[in-house]
């Protein structure tokens, strides 16, 4: 852990001038597993309270003395702010992009443009989530890679994307979502007047992972745009374990509250139930998940904040999202990274692929399913490192033997 | 019976030894390992094994198939821990055997012998579960830092020794056999001879173990081809012949380099920063595995069907092609590189005209991958020529390093392929399921959309 942390600390201190969000992140460090900010990076190697232990998934890790110097209040956010944080804190603009293929559909996306030759991270959220799921992560990425751009769209039936049918059951099949993502990328290029697409890293969480893998694998990005795809990263979704989990999904969904009295209550529920383990992330992303219904009157205690997306109704699409995901993940071109919240989530195909060295795997046992919201810093470090490794403009490999021979060198 | 022998007996029964004893063992092991160079010299005969990954019962099966310590001289190429449920017992047993029989047991470091990796992939949690504290994990990690990075096998013979496991009918091994693949009971599944032009003979893999004369003609094409398609993984698959493992034909077309040259064993592979074996010797190895640099590459890199060097999808190390391996072997007077690190469904895989081989020793990896495992036996060269022709890393050291014609890889070196050391692969399957207590499966995550 220490090497990674040192590297990260270096990156952090180099990026000190980009901490414009610090006032909003006051308590982020405290509740993220990477806790203690800089303190963690100077821990000796043998510190057994290291945040890498999966024991800490219960959140009861006792800070070591070294860490306590920097530690902020953690745990349940008693007395702390649960106020929503607006998206403008994180993104440069929002885009409303009318779909050319399906009239009446307007895609909504959050964008921070890349600077000069910086890469564009295109991030697709999971089912029931929204583009703001990546807001805190995007800030962390830009701290470490200030030239990076972030494009985080809302999928159909999620966030502020609108469809004509505006009924409760939009078409959420994988081909549709994958085509949507492609057209959003191209529409964004047009809207922003970019002559060419910047180098792209696709990032997908859960269902979004299936979408980006499908896009990367289908080679539908037209030439020369397909050249710009450097790689793709998938957050906490694996075909085998996702299919297993589907059986219990309706049961899980039935345990969720049907609605909340206020946004604050919604945020509090996400933090208290440990669905999201970082209150700043929750304050940022939860408001987009809920929609106020029946504003006219009603008694005060009514749970008028309802889920924007009826996940139960999306059940017909579930299997289609995940079938064949592992194979496609391994088949696609470009760098591949899988971020998981536990090694036991790998299925057989990906276990073999991992041991054959076909992709990079990072595991954050202390995170929940929403890795990027629970541990935005660590996820950002992993993604930025992933980009740097796959950045073709910077890649210099040692010469080939045939080249050496051609130069008349003895080998 | 000494304490050590008691500890070995207890660990063989898959029971952990007390923390105090682990501490003492690790201390002794460190004293022993600190004396070893980064590249340990091992004399043939030797049995080379790949990844174990805490699959204790399969390690026992390995010892059954390969022979027990100290009767067999073992070289383990790292990745003892993580993923399996008995990393602790597996590693401590190997370490006990190392301390008890230092000359019959060689352990080199794999990428999983690292603090960072073990905290994520199971060894740390296992120590915590079995001892209630991380002390034992810490002792083991201190030992990891002292493990050698590679080994050089000297004096490997061009002919196989008689197959001692092959039942009652101990056959004479024919002089020209280069590769022999046996199953767990020592029955020969296939055989490849180093005839002119790489033509090979293959025994009928099923049921003919006791009929060595039953030289079948099927599969010759596949094996002869393999000098071009570099062995097992080849798409042309006529080399797949019978039970798992026998498809692993290997290439008997011969090897570039000194026929009696040494065999370099390393967990991952080569590094662009390492062009001679001596450069490995210069590394400061007593540290956590770094994220980049020569030491990292040796433990992380993979061979691949590319030209030159490539980016490793793993996120650490490099990919390297046939040209890199052949030049390295030639420059260092090696006949073969043996490495582990990659799961091979057939247990072993020879690549690049048999200049490099991957050996994988964890059958049914993670208790679900369905692969077989293998170990590689190199026999002793009774003529002694193998040792004499060894120049210990540098070509032409005897002529002051100026380098005569032999210091340069000539075009005709590639044409006139010569044979590497004779290799016997023993392929084995996972130990029976009922012999292990499987910890309960973790519940699946409840939210996954």
UniProtKB/TrEMBL annotation, chain A:
This enzyme's EC code(s): 3.1.1.-
Catalysis performed (reactions): [phosphatase 2A protein]-C-terminal L-leucine methyl ester + H2O = [phosphatase 2A protein]-C-terminal L-leucine + methanol + H(+)
Residue ranges of coiled coil: none
Stretches with biased composition (Gly residues): 31-41
Active-site residues annotated for this sequence: 206, 236, 369
Compositional bias of kind Low complexity: 50-59
Broadest EC class assigned to this enzyme: hydrolase
One Pfam family recorded for the sequence: Abhydrolase_6
Keyword Hydrolase tagged: yes
PANTHER family the record matches: PROTEIN PHOSPHATASE METHYLESTERASE 1, PROTEIN PHOSPHATASE METHYLESTERASE-1 RELATED
Molecular function GO labels: protein methylesterase activity
Region listing for Disordered, in residue ranges: 18-66
Known function: Demethylates proteins that have been reversibly carboxymethylated. Demethylates the phosphatase PP2A catalytic subunit.
Keywords from the named record: Hydrolase, Serine esterase
Species, as recorded: Cercophora scortea
Keyword DNA damage recorded: no
Entry protein name: Protein phosphatase methylesterase 1
Domain AB hydrolase-1: from-to ranges: 121-380
Record InterPro entries: AB_hydrolase_1, AB_hydrolase_fold, PPase_methylesterase_euk
TrEMBL record, chain B:
The enzyme's E.C. designation: 3.1.3.16
Domain Serine/threonine specific protein phosphatases: residue ranges: 108-113
Positions annotated as active site in the UniProt record: 112
Keyword terms, alphabetized: Hydrolase, Manganese, Metal-binding
Cell division as UniProt keyword: no
Uppermost EC category: hydrolase
Pfam families for the chain: Metallophos
Composition-biased stretches (Gly residues): 244-254
Oxidoreductase listed as a keyword: no
A single GO molecular function term of this UniProt record: metal ion binding
Catalysed reactions, as listed in the record: O-phospho-L-threonyl-[protein] + H2O = L-threonyl-[protein] + phosphate
Region listing for Disordered, in residue ranges: 213-254
Family as reported in the entry's similarity comment: Belongs to the PPP phosphatase family.
Record's protein name: Serine/threonine-protein phosphatase
Species this chain originates from: Cercophora scortea
